[in-house]
Structure formats: C-alpha cells, structure tokens
Amino acid sequence: MFYFTITVLTSHLVAAQDWNGYTTSSFQDQEKMEAMLLQSMDFPSYREHLKKLTERPHIAGTPANEKVADYMAKVMEGAGMKVDLYPYDIYMSTDGGTSSIDLVTPIRLPLNQQEYIMPEDPFSSDLTLGKGWNAYSGSGDVTSTVVYANYGTKEDFEKLTEMGIEIKGKIVIARYGGNFRGYKAKFAEQYGAAGLIIYTDPADSGYMKGLVYPNGVYYDESAIQRGSLLTTDYEGDPLTPFEPSLPLDGKKKIKRMDPSEASLHTIPVLPIAYGAAKEIFARMNGKVVPSGWQGGLPYTYRLEGGKEFTVRVQVDQKKDFTRINNVVGTFKGTEYPDEWIILGCHYDAWAFGATDPNSGTAMLLSLSEALGKMVKEGHSPKRSILIAHWDAEEHGVIGSSEWVEQMRDALGAKAVAYLNFDGGVSGKNFGAASSPTLKGLVTEMAQKVDYPYTDKTLYDQWRGTKETPSIGNLGGGSDHIGFYMHVGVPSLSGGSHGPTLYHTNYDDFHFYETYVDPEFKMGGTIGQWAGLMALRMANAEVIPYDIKRYATDLKGHFENAIKKIQQFDSGFKGFEKVDKAIAVLEKNTTVLDAALSKALSGDKLSKKQLTSINQQLIALEKSFIDEKGMYYGSWYKSLYASTDPFSGYASWILPGLEYEISLTSTDRLEEWDQRYAAAIESLANKILVLANSLP
C-alpha cells in the first residue's frame, strides 16, 4: 500500500490556465456535468460496498479474493461498464506456509505469531485468519544469537559495522519503520545474517502513542504488520521483468526466469508483535544501543543478546505459479475513445483490508455507479474513463505492473492520466501527491467539493491555516509506479487518511466504523473529488494539464539537488546545461499558454486539430522517459521521479541525481547534466512545436 509515504513539497497554488482546456460554451456544459456528478454520488452505497468487500480475509491468489473480484465485476457491469479481466500467472505464495519463532536457551518459550481474539471485535475470531508472515521470505530453520539493528536501514547496518558488532550467522531483530521491510531483509542478508525478525515497536505504534486497540487506534501487544519483502530492481512478477506474466496456458508464451536467477531472499524472515518481541529484549545483555535506537519497551535496548541467549526462526514458505486477475471497467468515450483517464486501486489485502486497500476499492465502486447513472441519462464522457482494480499489489505492486507491461504501447499513446486511490478513504484527513501537470487539477477540484464535517470545502479543510496546501511528490509503494516511472503517464495518489491498523488482522469493518469514519461520509466525498477530476479531463477539448508547473517544479528540485551535492562537494557550481534548458522551457510554456488560450477562445478548432493537439500533450511526459533508465534498475525509466531504491517508499525527484547524492559521488554529474538537459530540451521543443501548430 502507498499510505502517503511521500516527500511533501509546499506548493504555490498555480491558478488554472485561462484556457483550462475548454471553450466558453463547452465549459458551461461541463459545469452542469460536474454538478450532476456531485448529486449522483450515493453516499450510503459506499458503506455497503465496504462491508461486502471486507466480509472475509482475501489474500491475492485465494478463492476469497476471487469472490471479491466477482463482486466488483458485477457492480461495474450493473453500472453499465464494459468489464474485462486481465489474468496473469505470478510466482508467489498465497500463505506463509509453516513457521515458528522460539526462545531456545536459556529458557524454551514459543512466541505468539497471531493477533488475539477480542470480544469487542467480532471479525477477530474469523477462522480463516492466519499468522503473521512476510511474502517472499526465504525458507530455513536457524538457531542463533541475536543482534538488534534498530530500523534495519542501510545506515543502521553501517553503524553496527562501525561499532564492531558481528552480524554474520546471527538472527537480526529490527523494528518496522524507516524503510520498506524488504530492504531490512536485503541488508540483513548482505551482512551475513542467518535470519530476520521484524516487529512493531510501541514507540512507533503502540501504548507510547496512545490507547491501543480495541480501546484506541494503535497496535496492541499482539498486532502484527504483514507485508511483502520483494526487492528486485524492477516491479511486478519476479520471473518476468519488462514482460507481462501472461497465463502459462495462454496462446502467447512468455519466457520466465528460473527462480534462482531472481535475487529472491534466502534467509527466513518473520514479523512479530511487540508483545512477543519484549521476550527477546528482556533477555538481551550486550552493549547499550546508541542514541536514537531506544524503543518503547520497558527495557534498556542492547545491541546483542549475548552468547547464552539463542533464538530459533523457522519458515517453510512454498512459492509457485498463482493466477491473479486485474478487473478493469470502461465507460467508452463518445468522441475520443482512444484517450483514457484511468482510476485505480488494488483489491487484495493481507486480511480484511478495510482501510488498506478496500476503502479505495469501495469508493471506486460508488463512483462507477454515479458515473453510470449519468451515462444512462445520456451524459457519457467524451474520453474513455477506465476504473481498474489491481490484484497482488500487496505482494509487490504486481498486478498493475504486469498490466502496464502488457499495455505499454497503448498507454504511451492513449493514457491521459492515472489516478491512484490505494486506501483512499482511510480517515478524515485529506492529502494528495502528484506529477506536476496534475497539481492544478488536484487543488481546483478540491475547491468544488464540500468537506462533510465542517462548513469548509475539501480544499480549505486541506490547507488549514496555510495560504495553500502542501502537495506531495509521488514515491513508491503503490500502483502508480508502473504508470508514472516506467511509461511516463502523469499520475497522482490521494484521498483521506487517518488511523490505521496497517496490515494487521484488525484492519476490519469493526475498526473502520468505530474509529476511521463512523459516519461514513468520506467515501462519497472522495468519490466526488475523484469523479470531478476524471470528468474534467474526460470532457475538455484540450487536456487541461498544468504545463507551467514543469518549469516551476524543476527549478525548485534542481536547487534542492545542488544544495545536497554542495554538502559533500563545496566547489560544485550547478548544472549549466540544465539551467539553459529550463529557461527555454519556461519561455516556450508561456508561448503555448497564450496560443492555447487564443485558439480555444476562437472556438474554431476542428476535431482533427484537437486530436493532434491532445496527442502532442500526451507525449509531453514521455520526454522524461529514458530507455537507459536508472543505474540502480533500468526498469525505472523516468528521469523525473522514482522510488527510493534504499527505502522503497520515499520519493526520489530527479532520481539520477539522488542516486549520486546517496553515493556521495560526483563522477557522473556531467553525464546527468547532459541527460537532464536533453530531456528538458525535448519537452521544450515539443511545447514550441505544439504552440506553433495552433491557428
């Protein structure tokens, strides 16, 4: 799940372009359409969809998840959408297999691996709930002494080495937070660990934060964060990089790697709760941890357990080819059916998935019905609106990545935008992250929606006491990755967030209706916002991208990068070629803005001209797609944004530079000056060609 793991950039709200993509007459019609959408949203339906979606735990590849897919397809077909299934065979596990974690010496004590049954929460006694587990763990049975690695980040393992702590052959225990859990496993294995235990510390989510579940929203002593460990240098199925993992029994055969070639983890890894972890920390007797490493358990945290204290970790997790299915519904555009606005959220979950992801799933189902009412009344969108429900996201952003690989060429030519709503209604606090060209749309549509718990708009509630709200930059962790970072489709992730029992067995309907949004008003609210964005893009004569935002954001990002480089190279003067390219981009953008405003005010553009203009606009973001890709993984082709390859969640803006900064290296800065300048020049040239083609 994405869960708002974004780098926040305080934005200056750029007013919508004067031309905003519409002629005067068509914009009046559009405002009527948008008012109709606001009225069509059935707020109570959101609750019913969420309740149905979360009846049972539904892990990817299980029969329970297939039932969820069937339900979604039925709802979308009922709304009038054409529904297509996209099946793939993925190399993965659908359960944790067999596992155990025990203290061995000086006492024998098996540790708890599953949440308690709570009388207050009827879902907690579901017989299909399972132990905590990590997908793509290695299998093994190891007994050894213990090393504490704080959050298990790259810097934490380097610190242990500096302090002379031997990791090889030991079992590492690390707390959740700081990076993607898969990197904890990757670094542990790199440093020679025999096994890894990951736990949630009460200082991060537990009694140190406030009341614990069921009396509050924080992890109790039995709550376990599940999650995937997949850390290949590409997204999707681990055996089919760059290619869709089409069904093994299908007509088209895809070459698959041998699992031994896929750099999967080999050491056993298990997640536990802090109630189990305390049994380990209570018995450790090595050196006291450095500043910042002490957690919230009532013991002095130590780096080692000592020679007499041993722990056993046993995992036998089978992996095999497993069928997954993306479910994609389409309202076909009446005028430009081959231009797509895509909205999506995954539907597989670690257990019930009430906040993550199915709050977003339920919202999209309600939105499907609202749009369907309009279509049945004769108000179809001019461009196609696709609503996609992705499978196997929790195993490593798999379903959406496979679809992007399968549809790569079509997306490059047809996709106007991708809007992601993973866990999109998981609280009452609104927020969003997006690529530059969608930031104006995000804020403008938020001004048209009422926030249900105050007399403010969604926008005003979002900005609070600030003049303008903060819009994030897209990082990793969810289904926008393939669209934005692999093929260059402008993207956003957003919605409302709040308390979460992330990836635990307690993320259920009882938790949602008790703590997340008891009044069930945010589902319809976010549905209105999402629907307005989709309709605004679907019906505009000219796609209403915020083109000016490119130069504005690029300036700020390069300034930030230069400051970081100067911290280890005080003589660095900056990127000369890039500066010149941005200056040209800024100038050309102004020319295009004026030209589009004039062309639309004349109301004389033919359908052929509009098609050409929009094809050129769709091509703009592709200026940042570099076939060479990143040095840490060529699957990541966007020069503009990428997942941080060391944390797995954070946003790397200008990732080519961020990678050099992470290495404190200046060796390739000249190369990156050339590559970035070439991309920006390409963008500037496309903009000027478009401006000059207008009447």
Automatic annotation (TrEMBL):
UniProt-listed CDD domains: PA_GCPII_like
Limits of the Peptidase M28 domain: 326-510
Residue ranges occupied by any Transferrin receptor-like dimerisation domain in the UniProt entry: 575-686
Alphabetically ordered keywords of this record: Carboxypeptidase, Hydrolase, Protease
InterPro entries: PA_dom_sf, PA_domain, Peptidase_M28, Peptidase_M28B, TFR-like_dimer_dom, TFR-like_dimer_dom_sf
Molecular function per GO: carboxypeptidase activity
Family listed: Belongs to the peptidase M28 family. M28B subfamily.
Protein name: Glutamate carboxypeptidase
The organism of origin for this protein: Flagellimonas aequoris
